[in-house]
Amino acid sequence: MDWVLDFLAARTQVVKFFVPDAILKERLDPETLESLGLIKQAHQFNQKIVKIKTKLFYKQQKFNLLREENEGYAKLITELGQDLSGNITSHIVLESIKSLIGCFNLDPNRVLDIILEVYECRSDQDEFFLPLIKSYMCEPLTLCHILGFKFKFNQEPNEETPTSLYHIAAALLHHNLIELEDIYVHLMPLDASIVEEHKREITEAKQIARKLTMVVVPSEKTEDKEREKEEEKNDKAPDNQKLGLLEALLRIGDWHHAQSIMDQMPSFYATSHKAIALALCQLLHLTVEPLYRRAGVPKGAKGCLLRPLKNKRAPRPAESFEDLRRDVFSMLCYLGPHLSHDPILFAKIVRLGKGFMKEYQSEGRNDNIKDKMDTLLSCFLSIADQVLLPSLSLMECNACMSEELWGLFKLFPYQHRYRLYGQWKNETYTSHPLLVKVKAQTVDRAKYIMKRLTKENVKPSGRQIGKLSHSNPTILFDYILSQIQWYDNLIGPVVDSLKYLTSLNYDVMAYCIIEALANPEKEKMKHDDTTISSWLQSLASLCGAVFRKYPIELAGLLQYVTNTLKAGKSFDLLILKEVVQKMAGIEITDEMTSEQMEAMTGGEQLKAEGGYFGQIRNTKKSSQRLKDALLDHDLALPLCLLMAQQRNGVVFLEGGEKHLKLVGKLYDQCHDTLVQFGGFLASNLSTEDYIKRVPSIDILCNQFHTPHDAAFFLSRPMYGHQILSKYDELKKAEKSNRQQQKVHKYVAACELVMSPVHEAVVSLHPPRVWDDLRPQFYATFWSLTMYDLAVPHNAYDREVKKLQLQVQVIEENPDVPMNKKKKEKERCTALQEKLQEEEKKQLEHVQRVLHRLKLEKDNWLLAKSTKNETITKFLQLCLFPRCIFSAIDAVYCARFVELVHQQKTPNFCTLLCYDRVFSDIIYTVASCTENESRRYGRFLCCMLETVTRWHSDRAVYEKECGNYPGFLTIFRATGFDGGNKADQLDYENFRHVVHKWHYKLTKASVHCLETGEYTHIRNILIVLTKILPCYPKVLNLGQALECRVHKICLEEKEKRPDLYALAMGYSGQLKGRKAHMVPENEFHHKEQPLRSATPVSQQNGPGTTAKPATNASKTEEGVSEDADRAKDKSQGAAKPANKANSTAAKVTTSNGNGAPNSTKTLKERDDKEKSGKEKKEKKEKTPGSTLETKGESRREKQRDERGASGKEERAPREGKEKTPKADRDKQKAEEKSNKEDNKAKTGNGEPKEPSRERDTGAKESKSKEKGGDRSAMSGSLKSPVPRLESAESERDHKRRKLETHSSPSHSSSVKDNSNEPKDSASKHHINYNSVARSKSRERETDKKESENTRGRSKEKKTDNKDRKDRKRDHMTTDREMSLESKRRKDENGTNSSNKHSKSASPSSGSPVSADKEKTKRSKSSSKEKGESAKPERNSSGGKKESRHDKEKSDKKEKRDSSGGKDEKKHHKSSDKHR
Q1: What are the backbone dihedrals phi and psi of residue 832, each rounded to the nearest 5 degrees, phi first?
Q2: Measured torsion, CA atoms of residues 983, 988, 994, 1000, in degrees rounded to the nearest 10
């Protein structure tokens, strides 16, 4: 047993060592304690516990109040209320209190209560009472109960807790005499009530905001205001003891306990009470004072010194920025938007931030310090977000604080600023009831101002906007921008009214614009998906105006555009375009006048004065700001490259599901912005900046995948800068004033700069390209501009005269003050001098460039392949890509071609180049966008100007083209000796070629107009409008275009209004140009030398034209026969036009006989007209006119439609023909047989055919004429002939036909290509390979002419006699025609199925008609042999017929049907002769 006792004793000692006795007695049961020896007996221990509990919980301690003496309390009060200024200490007073309690039997708790009451009355004696209470008090809980009773007593409805009580509680808490948790439960109201109140305030604020945004009747408004006033009177805020204690804690500097109380409440609830906010602000003043004095006080400011708190337990003042993290930042975060109550503290915090940013931006920090500074930076940004900006919203119209805050914000990167603005605008206003109300009030006030904003009241409205913007710029600008997006006419007044804004407000404005642009909820396209939305256009216009007028940072906007381009979206390029246009004064438009275009080829000063629509002034500062923003953020080159790449991205990546019209607009916008932006960089960046940022051409194309045209566009200014700088270096190295030496130095500088470029461009194309073009030629073409090629002297003179006129007007104006007159005169004079100096400088430069080109030209083009291949490469790689790049480049391309021609460049065929440009423009036009069409049209216009100048004057042609290698008709690549005159294209043949080009343009235009495709029609109308000064020049071509455009106007009026507007505009201009058009026979010499009856001296005879015609034939075959053949196969839609053109190629002889005989008498002209009709009959017999039946039907329909007018026209004609009636009848029968013979031959292609079939076929064709003529006419390329008045004489009628109408197809059919310029109208009659046949035909023609002359003389003698006979015979003819039409209907099936059947006709047995048919068959068979070598050309070229020729044939048939004795005799004599 002993060992057990020992073990228990040892265990007891171990337990006692590790666990205190008190805990063991508290936790263990009595039996265990007894076994452990901690108590003696468990039973006694239980009894003792019961007695203690009874005494503690059930026995009331009572003091005998009768034994307490009032004198003791009186002495106690006297003791506590004595003067404490002497040597009285709390220890002495405490001993006195103890003695009083013992002497007078005072209750200790009542004594403590009296001590607290006296302390409350003497709350300034903290140093005395706090040690006294601490010494007197034995239990903190007792003190809490007494204080709680005091707080409870003041919670009655009409009671108010005194401030001194809050101070006592705060002091006791601060010195840890009581615990916050103990006293907090005695305070009212409950936390749940506080949360409910906060929620109620937010709800009420939102209701107020909703009321402000609702439309309310004025009477309801007044009722609401009265109700609100009554509620404010009745609702008195209840006493909040927790907030009172919090304020007291802040006053004494106990931040720790104050923070604990605020954590129990909703955010910013405590500081929303002004007293608490001010107490916290005062504490912050004291905390930041030392650091502010060191790093925040601006120079010259003194400020008032603050006395620090005597409380040593208050937060320590901050001595460094790192100390701010200890307490200051947390205090500010609890303060939140209510820093607005103390603007001075607001300014101090902002200035501390500026001081920190200066240290942060200083260099030389190690990594450890840098991390700390980054942390501090994030803290300052948080303070700006949570405290400074919300506080600014609650400050009413404090512009000084706004500017002070901008002093800090401008040191932040724009990314940080914009994030702060975003938080401010979208989140801050929902965090507090006050901010909700402020937002609603701001919007209400903004609506009031914007409703009344006009141009007339900009100044007062601007002041109101300024006041409102100082505090809440985000809300105000958001509303203003929403209004501008709806009403773009507000842009001007709004921009003018923003002049009262602060710098911070301008920066916020920039952010709000970017946010509005990036709004994902808004569609940037209209609902039709073809145009950009109007809201985006309005914002873009606002951007340009605002950023130009006010000093707003551009980096954010430029970066936004860059980011959208990176994302593959090009809509927002509209913004960049507007900004550059407004800030730099650089306009991009294809609607320039010729004077503006001329001015744009000069220097920068001339461009600014005469190249733009608006007067560009005062852009120096704004241009500098834009340039600085681009360079500081390295956005210049990225924007250029992204725009260049995005052009193709618009089509292939972005435009997949978009409407074609919208894709074209986006492409144009991207391209125009690139041109505009590149022009801005070239004119504003210094040489060093530009060269440093733009890489070489091979890197641009191969590494950055920039299209070649854009790459050269960006590199071109760099080459110019480098050449000029190198030229200046060479001049300085060797000073010489001789002009020749200067030119040589310039050439040397060009070689030094361009040699690396020549090597770099080799990698841009496959090696085979350089077999035709030299890299030197390629680089020269792409590196030069119009500034290098010509000096616009007229533009310089024009602008100088304008300035002189301005000076004169200023001098004559008496209202202008003298000082202003002087300034304006000085300005105009300075501009004149600048322009004259610039002109002189450009003239010297152009001379140097031309000399350089003269030296280089011999090495431009190699002789390794044909000239055709060389021209193809030149067009493909140089001319076409650049001519649609910009309007200036379009002019440049045309002038460069002319320059290469003038330089007599070897192996360059000017004729071939022009032919390839004009021959087929359909595919080029169809692939252009709208703006590219304008540029392409301008290019064609410039090319046509040159051609028209050469065409208009033989002397000019001989001087500029006569002995030049570009007009050689030999297309193999050889050197040019200039000696062989026969190889040159002479003037007349050149005129034929020009007519062919005009016809080709007409053919392509009509095809595009007939396709029905939107793009084709729009583009060709744009091109036609641009080339209107030079085309059309030929009357029938113009009429064909006019007819087709009129049809477009009718078709598109309701369907596509934009096409209708274009067509109507062009139609009106075309009619205005009609007076300047000429007949075809005046445009080029159309007469055939072997068939004409005119004297040889008036013709271009075969001896002088045969060889050039052959050469021209070679030219045309080599250039475009294959292309036209492929085109004819692919263009099914153009079939009617092709047929009409090919038919017209065979019936134009009569139109071409008037010009060389304009001096002949009227009689001779009438005779020629007669002979022309016979020639046309012969032509109608040729094979190859496969559509002759259709031509006959068209003529018959026209005759029937104009029956009435035809009858009236026959009357004057009958008066001129005096032939017997019998002869007329014979002639009528003979004419029928001729027509039937012609129709049978053209239909079957065989020489033999029965006359009966010919007769019925002719009648059938006439009956078909009535139904099918209109549709055939509208779809074919014919010149509409104006209907003649029935009263005019036949002589005037014929003269008008001869002088104004001609066929559009002379030497211009698809397969002709000017093979034989002078015989294309009658290829089936003339064959230059057979001289004998042509001579016999010439003799035959002379005989016919003599017979015609005799016939006409007889007609005149019998004129009056025959008139009555014709009238009488008219009814007989009509009856015969009706019988013929009936018989034709009966025999319709026979004619179509059995073409070789024989039937008797009235004229088949006559010997005259038989001989005539025999002669025709022999001629047609010989003609088939002569033309068998070129069947394809005949078949395609013989399908078109002009409308004018059809009408002529109609009138001839009418005259023949009425009968003519003299004509019959004439036909008989001519048949006998044959």
Answers
A1: -60, -45
A2: -90
Res 271: pLDDT? 92
Report the amino acid identity of residue 526.
K
Q: Which of 826, 1120, 842 is nearest to 999 (CA)?
A: 1120
Rg (CA), the chain: 53
Taking 50 as the threshold, does the pLDDT of residue 1262 lie above it?
no
pLDDT, tens only, 120-153: 999 888 889 999 998 987 788 889 999 999 999 8
Q: How far is CA 626 from the centre of its chain?
A: 19
Do residues 15 and 24 touch, judged by C-beta distance below 8 A? yes
Q: What angle do helix axes 930-952 and 660-684 make, rounded to 10 degrees?
A: 70
pLDDT the model gives residue 461: 92
Spatial distance between the Cα atoms of 685 and 675, rounded to a whole number of angstroms:
15
Beta carbons within 8 Å of 509's beta carbon, 6+ residues apart? 473, 477, 498, 501, 546, 552
With a pLDDT cut of 90, the percent of the chain lying above it is 33
Biggest distance spanned by C-alpha atoms of the chain: 182
- Cβ–Cβ under 8 Å, residues 873 and 773: yes
Segment 531-552, tens digit of pLDDT = 778 888 899 999 999 999 999 9
Q: Percentage of residues in the chain with pLDDT exceeding 70?
A: 67
Give the residue ranges of DSSP H helices in 518-659.
534-549, 555-566, 573-584, 594-599, 604-610, 620-632, 636-649
Please provide the average confidence, as pLDDT, over all residues in the chain.
75
Look at the block and give the residue holding tokens 């209400």: 444
Contact 572, 564 (CB under 8 A): yes
The helix (H) or strand (E) run that includes residue 290 is helix 274-291
- Residues in Cβ contact with 329 at an 8 Å cutoff, skipping those fewer than 6 apart: 379, 382, 383
CA-to-CA distance for 1034 and 1151, rounded, in angstroms? 13
DSSP secondary structure letter of residue 19? S
pLDDT confidence tier of residue 415, bands split at 50, 70 and 90: very high
Angstrom distance (rounded) from CA 1321 to CA 1091: 12
Give Cβ neighbours of residue 1281 (< 8 Å, ≥ 6 apart).
1301, 1443, 1444, 1447
- Over 50: is that where the pLDDT of 1158 sits? no
- For residues 486-508, give the mean pLDDT: 92
Written as six digits, the tokens of 434 are 């006050």
| Token pair listed for 1189 | 């039946």
Side-chain-side CA neighbours of 89 within 13 Å: the count stands at 4
| pLDDT of res. 613 | 61
Residue 1034, pLDDT > 90, answer yes
CB 1241 within 8 A of CB 1183: yes
Cβ pair 542, 483 in contact under 8 A: no
Cβ(152)–Cβ(241) under 8 Å? no
CA 916, CA 747: separation in Å to the nearest integer? 33
Residue by residue, what is the 3-state secondary structure of 433-444?
A: HHHHHHHHHHHH
CB atoms within 10 A of CB 96: 16
For residue 189, cis peptide bond before it (omega within 30 degrees of 0): yes
Distance, in Å, from the CA atom of 378 to the CA atom of 214, rounded to the nearest integer, reads: 41
What would the pLDDT profile of 1073-1111 be if each residue is shown by its tens digit? 988 999 998 888 875 544 433 333 333 333 333 333 333
Contact 249, 313 (CB under 8 A): no
Q: What is the DSSP string of 854-880?
A: HHHGGGTB-SSS-HHHHHHHHIIIIIH
Q: Global pTM? A: 0.67
Q: Which of 106, 108, 122, 116 is nearest to 74 (CA)?
A: 106
How large is the average pLDDT for residues 386-402? 91
Confidence of residue 336 (pLDDT cuts 50, 70, 90): very high
Distances in whole angstroms, Cα of residue 612 to Cα of each of 593, 594, 1069: 10, 12, 24
Closest CA to 194 of 262, 123, 288, 276: 262
Q: For residue 386, what is the DSSP state?
A: I
Q: Which residues pair with 1034 in a beta bridge?
A: 1078
Residue 1121, pLDDT > 50, answer no
